[in-house]
Specification:
Elements: H1 3-16, H2 20-34, E1 38-39, E2 43-48, E3 51-52, E4 57-60, E5 63-64, E6 71-76, E7 81-83, E8 88-91, E9 95-96, E10 103-111, E11 117-126, E12 144-147, E13 150-154, E14 160-164, E15 172-175, E16 184-191, E17 199-204, E18 216-218, E19 224-227, E20 238-247, E21 257-264, E22 272-273, E23 277-283, E24 291-294, E25 297-298, E26 311-318, E27 327-329, E28 335-338, E29 350-358, E30 369-379, E31 387-388, E32 392-398, E33 404-409, E34 411-412, E35 424-430, E36 437-438, E37 448-452, E38 463-472, E39 487-495, E40 502-503, E41 508-513, E42 521-524, E43 527-528, E44 539-544, E45 550-552, E46 558-561, E47 576-585, E48 590-601, E49 609-611, E50 614-618, E51 626-631, E52 643-646, H3 651-656, E53 657-661, E54 666-671, E55 679-688, E56 696-706, H4 716-722, H5 727-759, H6 793-796, H7 836-849, H8 899-905
Parallel strand pairs: 2-11, 12-16, 15-21, 23-30, 32-39, 41-48, 50-56
Antiparallel strand pairs: 1-5, 3-9, 4-8, 6-10, 7-8, 10-11, 13-14, 16-19, 17-20, 18-19, 20-21, 22-25, 24-28, 26-29, 27-28, 29-30, 31-34, 33-37, 35-38, 36-37, 38-39, 40-43, 42-46, 44-47, 45-46, 47-48, 49-51, 51-54, 52-55, 53-54, 55-56
Helix pairs in contact: 1-2
């Protein structure tokens, strides 16, 4: 019968009330099935004589053994005791027990077959002696704690005095998670005075009368201390209580005694890993014994006992390649290390381990376990060199081209992409001594881009054979041996193209004198075609000639003049004139340019002029004269020194002025007479330069003669300011001009507004003067195309005008009057058919006197505005339908807003 069945039968026993024999049979079965091997008591408290002899039996330990296996007993932590095979404890030497201390020991039981180990503690206390003279006999019956506070001291005179002294009680051990019936007795506490007095016992402290309250209770009469419910060491590991003994009046008869209750741990908590999944990494190719990572688990049980001592173990490894045991774990620390070689990221990128933690020092039978997942990522090292996908590469490129990709060199690398162990670096090791090629790396594809960086001339070299090597950005890992050098051969073919002709020398410099006449041959400027394998003709043309002085023969490159070369031209800089020519050959055409630098030598081709051209002088000659010089565009050899002289004509020049020579560059001009009236005078001066063939020129010096102050400065401007045209006057004039312009602008705007008012065809007043609903004004000045269709023949024949009112004025259909009679007087024919002006004047007078003349009332539909207006109706729709006279003078009595209508319809010759 299994345990579960026994528990079910016991439950049935309680429910159905079975007989006593059945109950005893089930109890015996329960004992057999539910028996747990081990000591029957966790602790033993023994009272013994104060003096013990060697080999004296102290007490027996009882061991419950359901399986009846062979068990061996041993005593630990004390050399004063030994134990027999039956569990009897003997003293191994004479022993003296103190009155105020307990001797502690441990008894171990071990199964000889399974090596399973159990233990229990014992405390050996000295029995108190019997004391008379009124003291109660001190006795102790296990399990109980006696209060031996009262002791007897005999003095020298024979008197006896009682004193109090404390006694430290050994801790009480209570296993957690007890399944016994509660309350469960722990120990009995009693005083030696309970024989003579009625005492009351109590306990205080956390767990008794302090939170958590009610865990421990004491029988106030018997002193039996009990626990009321299972204890949890992980919640509270120990309790500190104080036991009190008082009489019936509440008077303390003994000093309080401290009681320590330790909660003995049981293995009731599984290990818990700090993470569900642990992540670690190790480089590929790591040697055995390389540290990988650490996994950690915790157990709430007591770490000082086997219940909280954990052991780690690897349960599984996935994948199991190249070995099923690539890693091992330190069973105590949880450190995972490599145990086998062969970690290769290119084959296995990561491993998944299931790690188990078991308490009870890893005992698979009694220990509790838990598992966690460990992911170990294999990191990459450079253990694979780049390998070219083929042994040879080739490409073509046009000559003289640069920054052109000739070929793409491809490699493969098994290392992790886009890392330094994967990225390739290409190097040309042979075939390019002048450095015409380079091989940058494409970071995305890891290809080598063979690029031309220097122009290559087909006529010099037609092909290249390059030897290229590929390596990684970082060196290979230690111990990696290359099977062969990763090199490849790249053949490059140069293609011939039509190259531009080249002038030689370029630029070309010539030196000649200025002033060459048109048609002069200067030089020949030709270009050579670098294409030796193409037959082509070169043609020349002019590209840049700012002064348009030269021309070039398109066939032979001879350059000649088409205008006179002038060194003093603004296009000549530093005596040099540059012209650019172009040479063209082949199809398609290739162009080359060349520059001709012409250095122009100076000749004396410019006459000097007086400088400055205008000067000032006082009316009366003073001590200071006027210094003048000459300007000559020629160079210094064809310019100064100059010769200055006054011209003899007119005669008053030499009479009024005198010119003295200072040096080769300057001369002085003075007044020869005492004074000269203010004004502008032109003094002719002849200047001659010092050229090889001297040139002379007569220049007129403009001399302004004026009155001077005592400093010798002209005072003409001061007189003008004194006359009233000062700064304030000028500002006032400007302000007046601005005001005048504003007035003119306002007048023009007012005139335009007045014209619009005259041309408006409104029945009543302007929208600005209307106090009723606003009338939208659209400035309609005509009726469309029909208003432009005038019958000019009626101007020639006035008598043929229609007699109806609808024929008068502008004939718009929406303004045609409802009546047919008019008050126009009958007019005779014009005295002369061409006298149109008189006819129009008469028609105007008639229209002014006719109330039915335009503008007509028009029927306009608006929104309903209400009724019973005190102003009445202004419309003439209800007036007479004929063209009879109608008086509008009453409109003037309606106020100033209607006076315009009164003036308009009031009649009169005006």
């Amino acid at each position: 019968m299994r345990r579960r069945e026994v528990w079910m039968l016991m439950a049935a026993l309680q429910v159905f009330g079975l007989s006593g024999e059945t109950r005893r049979w089930l109890s015996s079965k329960q004992e057999m099935l539910l028996c747990e091997r081990g000591f029957t008591q966790k602790e033993y408290i023994i009272a013994a004589k104060q003096e013990l002899a060697k080999g004296q039996a102290v007490f027996n330990v009882t061991f419950q053994d359901c399986s009846r296996g062979k068990v061996r007993f041993e005593v630990g932590q004390s050399a004063d005791f030994r134990v027999s095979e039956a569990g009897e404890i003997y003293t191994s030497r004479p022993l003296s027990l103190g009155r105020d201390r307990a001797v502690e020991g441990v008894v171990y039981a071990q199964d000889l077959r399974t090596k399973q180990l159990w233990k229990t503690k014992f405390f050996l206390l000295a029995k108190p002696q019997q004391v008379k003279h009124g003291d109660a006999t001190l006795t102790q019956h296990l399990p109980e704690i006696l209060f031996p506070w009262r002791s007897m001291i005999v003095k020298g005179d024979g008197t006896v005095r009682r004193v109090k002294r404390d006694w430290v009680i050994p801790p009480i051990n209570v296993p957690e998670n007890s399944r016994g019936q509660f309350p469960e007795d722990l120990v009995r506490i009693r005083s030696d005075r309970d024989k003579n007095w009625m005492l009351r016992y109590s306990v205080t402290g956390p767990g008794a009368d302090q939170p958590p309250t009610g865990i421990f209770i004491i029988n106030p009469i018997s002193g039996q201390l009990s626990v009321t419910k299972p204890l949890d060491r992980e919640h509270i590991s120990n309790f500190h209580l104080r036991a009190h003994a008082v009489d019936l009046n509440g008077n303390q008869v003994e000093n309080p005694i401290d009681i320590v209750i330790n909660v003995i741990d049981q293995n009731d908590n599984r290990p818990e890993f700090t993470h569900t999944v642990f992540n670690g990494s190790v480089p590929e190719g790591s040697k055995p014994g390389s540290f990988v990572m650490t996994v950690t688990a915790v157990d709430k049980d007591d770490p000082k006992t086997a219940n909280g001592m954990l052991r780690y173990k690897i349960l599984s490894q996935n994948p199991q390649s190249p070995s099923s045991n690539m890693f091992t774990i330190n069973n105590k620390t949880g450190d995972i290390i490599t145990v086998a070689a062969g970690l290769d990221r290119e084959k296995v990128t990561q491993y998944t381990l299931i790690v188990q933690a078991t308490d009870m020092e890893g005992n698979p039978t009694y220990g509790l376990s838990n598992t966690a997942t460990t992911v170990i990522r294999i990191t990459d090292v450079n253990d694979n060199p780049p390998e070219f996908t083929t042994d040879t590469f080739s490409g073509d490129v046009d000559e003289n081209r640069v920054n052109v990709i000739v070929a793409n060199l491809t490699v493969t690398d098994k290392d992790q992409p886009h890392t330094q162990a994967w990225s390739a670096v290409y190097r040309i090791v042979a075939g390019d001594p002048t450095g015409r090629f380079s091989i940058p790396t494409d970071p995305t594809t890891n290809e080598g881009l063979l690029t031309v960086v220097k122009p290559i001339n087909y006529e010099e070299k037609r092909s290249f054979m390059l030897m290229v090597e590929a390596q990684n950005e970082v060196p290979l890992a230690r111990g990696i041996h290359l099977p062969r050098q990763p090199t490849v051969t790249v053949s490059v073919r140069i293609l011939d193209v039509n190259e531009s002709p080249e002038f030689s020398p370029n630029p070309k410099s010539i030196k000649l004198e200025e002033g060459l006449p048109a048609g002069s041959l200067l030089t020949t400027f030709t270009a050579q075609d670098p294409d030796r394998f193409m037959s082509q003709n070169v043609r020349y043309s002019k590209m840049y000639d700012p002064a348009n002085w030269l021309q070039i023969d398109p066939f032979n490159g001879r350059i000649s003049t088409i205008a006179i070369l002038d060194r003093e031209s603004p296009y000549v800089k530093n005596n040099q004139y540059n012209v650019t020519f172009m040479a063209t050959d082949g199809d398609p055409a290739a162009n080359g340019t060349g520059t001709l630098q012409i250095y122009l030598m100076d000749i004396n081709d410019n006459a000097p002029h007086v400088f400055p051209p205008e000067v000032e002088m006082c009316e009366k000659p003073g001590p200071n004269a006027i210094n003048i010089t000459a300007s000559d565009p020629d160079l210094s050899t064809n310019a100064g020194p100059f010769a200055f002289d006054l011209v003899g004509r007119p005669l008053d020049v030499r009479r009024n002025w005198t010119l003295s020579h200072l040096n080769g560059e300057y001369a002085q001009l003075r007044l020869q007479i005492s004074s000269l009236s203010s004004g502008i005078y032109e003094v002719p001066i002849m200047i001659t330069d010092s050229g090889n063939l001297p040139m002379s020129n007569t220049s007129h010096l403009r001399v302004k003669v004026c009155q001077c102050d005592h400093h010798g400065d002209c005072v003409d401007m001061e007189r003008i300011i004194a006359a009233g045209l000062g700064t304030g006057a000028i500002i006032a004039i400007l302000i007046g001009i601005i005001i005048l312009l504003v007035l003119v602008l306002l007048f023009v705007m007012w005139m335009k507004r007045r014209d619009k008012e005259r041309q408006a065809k409104q029945l009543l007043i302007d929208p600005e003067d209307d106090v009723r609903d606003n009338i939208l004004k659209y400035d309609e000045e005509g009726g469309g195309e029909e208003d432009q269709d005038y019958d000019l023949s009626q101007l020639q024949q006035p008598d043929t005008l229609e007699s109806e009112c609808m024929k008068v004025g502008i004939r718009r259909l929406d303004e045609r009057p409802l009546h047919h009679k008019h008050q126009y007087p009958l007019r005779s024919a014009a005295p002369h058919p061409g006298d149109i002006g008189e006819f129009i004047h008469e028609g105007l007078k008639a229209a002014d006197n006719d109330p039915t003349a335009p503008p007509y009332d028009s029927l306009l539909v608006f929104d309903y505005e209400g009724s019973s207006s005190t102003a009445g109706s202004l419309s003439t729709l209800h007036s007479s339908s004929s063209c009879e006279d109608q008086e509008y003078d009453y409109l003037g009595d309606w106020g100033p807003r209607f006076r315009k209508l009164a003036d308009l319809f009031g009649g009169g010759d005006d």
